[in-house]
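Case study 2.
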Amino acid sequence: MINASLVLPALLLDRLLAEPRCFHPLVGFGRLTQRVEALLYPRACNAVPAWRMRLYGVLGIVLLLLPFTLLARWLGSLPGIGLAASVVVLYLAIGAQSLAKHAEAVAAALENHDLPLARQRVGMIVSRQTEQLSESQVARATVESVLENGGDAVFSALFWFLIAGAPGVVLYRLSNTLDAMWGYRNQRYQYFGWAAARFDDLMNLIPARLTALTYVLLGNTRVGWRCWRAQAPTWYSPNAGPVMAAGAGALNISLGGAAIYHGKSKERPPLGEGREPTTADIRRAVALVRRGMWAWGVLALVVGLSFGGFHA
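Prediction:
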């Protein structure tokens, strides 16, 4: 039995405890991923055909995801402690409070007119180069990260827990971490990371659109819906596009535009409409994610109490 009423206790744990201070399981998984990559990635990769590199990547996914997914299934089925274990697993998979703290740290630096510190702090949550960003660009990068990671670290995790319990959320969260490490379209990961990127796209296909719907319903519905329909197809990510376009429209701000990645400027399509983001919009984005998160939690509780939970 996978009870939807377990969602709210996990959200409360995240709110009260945030991420574990000593060691987070995802950090350990990241180190394990590096070891598996070192084991599978051929030294003379230029001499290896593309199909074989993709096969190595698929093998890496199986080796990294299957054992932990089965472990989560076993923990969730244990008599007496299975439900508690499922709550803890979901709590560890959700990163809402951590995301809010990182965003708040950037906002605080901007309010104190410490732009170098703000650049340093936003560099911890985005992959673009931040050394030359203006205040508005720092605010834009932070809002974009909050909206996108709100989908990845909050709503998608909740979705897969509701669908498949602890095994589902573990499978999703680890595949999302793999995508963050291997899902790059560069020389090293173009083929080796292909399966990780495609699998993460598949896992996020429905949750991303539910995230976009959440933003639209809890923000400026009319503008958010219009931006979602018109701008999402122009974005380079099929799942981040709906999330960020809907979120930007719901907040009545403009996102996207030029950003520097690995020393090269990338002109990204515009998202949303309205003014440039400010420091206050960082907190508005965090509040939007939080409203959505608690709305999901309350709805899950109502469903769980009304129908007795979901069966795996």
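The longest helix spans residues 135-182.
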